[in-house]
Amino acid sequence: MQNKFVFIAGVFGMAAVVLGAFGAHALKNYLEASQLSAYQTGISYQFYHTLAMFAIALSGSAPTSKTRLAFWLFLVGILLFCGSLYWITLSKAGLIPMLWIIGPITPIGGLFFIAGWSVLAIHGLTKP
Description:
α2 packs antiparallel against α3 and α3 runs antiparallel to α4. The protein is elongated. It contains 4 helices and no strands. By secondary structure, the chain is mainly alpha-helical. 77% of the residues lie in helices and 0% in strands.
C-alpha cells in the first residue's frame, strides 16, 4: 500500500508542476493576471495536499485505517476542489465549456480537505 500511495502522490505532484507551468505560460495569453488567481489557488492547494499525501505515504509505518482514509480524502479533495478551479479558469479562457455543476463542486472539495485534516487530527489523539 505504501508504494501505491507514493506513486499516487508522485503523479499528483507531477501534475501540479505541469498544470502550474501551463498556467504560467499558456493561460497568461488568454486571461488577465487577476483571473489567474483561482487557478493559482488550485495549484497551491494541490501542492499542499500532495505533500500531505507524501507524508502519509512515507510516515515510516504501515498506513492505518485513519491515515489511509485521510490520504483518499485529500485525493478526492484535490480532484473536486482543485479540478473545479482549473475547469472554471479554463472556461473563462474560452478553452472548455462552463458547466453549471462545476461551481458548487469547489466547496465540496474543500469539505474533503477539512475531513482529511480532521481524520489526521483524530489519528494523532488516538495513536498509541
